[in-house]
Amino acid sequence: MIRIRSTSPQSSTLLATVQYILIYCALSLGGMALPIYIGADLFLVSILISCSIYLFFIKKEEFIGTTFSYFIGALSISLLLPILFSDLSLGTSLRIICILLLIYTTIHIDKRHVLQRFLQIAYLLAAISIILFFLTYIWGFNVVSPLFPYLLPSYSEGMLYSYTSPVYNFVFLHSDRNCGPFGEPGQFQCMLTVALYFSLFHSRLIAKNRQKKYIAILTIALLTTLSTSGYIAFIFIIGCYLLHPQNYKNKKIKRYFLTGLCGVILFLTVTPLGHNFIEKAVYDKIFNTEKHNIDFTQGTGGARTKSITEVIELIEKEPFSLAGLGYDRMKSLNLEGCAGILSLFIAIGIFPFSILFGFSFWCIYHKSQSRWDILIRILLIINMGLGQPNIMNPALFFMVFYSYLCLKSNSVPFKRAIIQHATYK
């Protein structure tokens, strides 16, 4: 039987506030505005120092000697090789370690309530994004222009790219897509799909009335991103959920999904907005510019598709690239648009990459509810890694490590398991 590790019956207000802040900071490292407001380097160093003080001094006895601490140590040592012998920057390595330490710290502070608080933040950001997206989609950016003087402008190639705020980004390039509080829709969909995964696969830890609201809002927000990766992830989640052992499924939720699926299909095939969704999320990704032939190398997703063959060719020509090239060298080789998982592999090298994902997949297998729980998490990692340029997304690794850090006993992955209902606060 899988049980939640025991914690104090009630979390203090201060503890809850700190955990909310840490969850938001972790999500911000996935591409939100907070690091820009504070300063990216200052934000990263502050997080790294705070987590180090907490883990290596305040909670030294609980952290030192754990499997996770050995993992962090091995990964840190392995990252020294590409730092010393390639163009991999110290900042890139520190960012990877910082994300992992922040996730561990965030979960460790209050394991009983961290999932509920993560979902509350994701739900709130998704709800705000839906309102502001439809306002700007229907009436244009003029309806929110009075807010712009109070927001932080960002530029790309000398041109105004967006106005950013802590809860929503007004991105002019993606005016017909919901970016939420992130810089582009692909980053937003990662948080949404992870939250949707938790809402379905860890439903016994969530109040039923809240679960329905979470699923509805997260799904609507995900559909408005027009992210192909997000749509693929959504299909994976629903498919694995419906194939999940019957004891884990809520029959009402299943009916809601089937009804909602029919509604979505009707919306996409009948309405002009639905046609635009299909064109942006499907046709532009897989067809050439004339829209006559399927061509994965010329659509809007072509850069990441071509990167797969380019990385293979690079490894064949330069086998030592497996030791890690660093992002600066990759940029000089025109590989900066590379798929995220391949980009990270070439940047940090085979040894750190193997330690990072080897441990991640071990955590997924070691403590999971069923084979479908294992499969969906692996599929979401692969989908994010091949569909987006940055795979080091904190939301993704929160999904990877949550069960490992919060579930007490070893699971039996290929048998049904029962999760003890946690007190919902």
TrEMBL record:
Membrane-spanning intervals of the chain: 12-30, 36-56, 68-86, 92-109, 121-141, 186-207, 214-244, 256-278, 339-362, 374-407
Keywords: Membrane, Transmembrane, Transmembrane helix
Name of this protein: O-antigen ligase like membrane family protein
Organism the protein comes from: Bacteroides fragilis
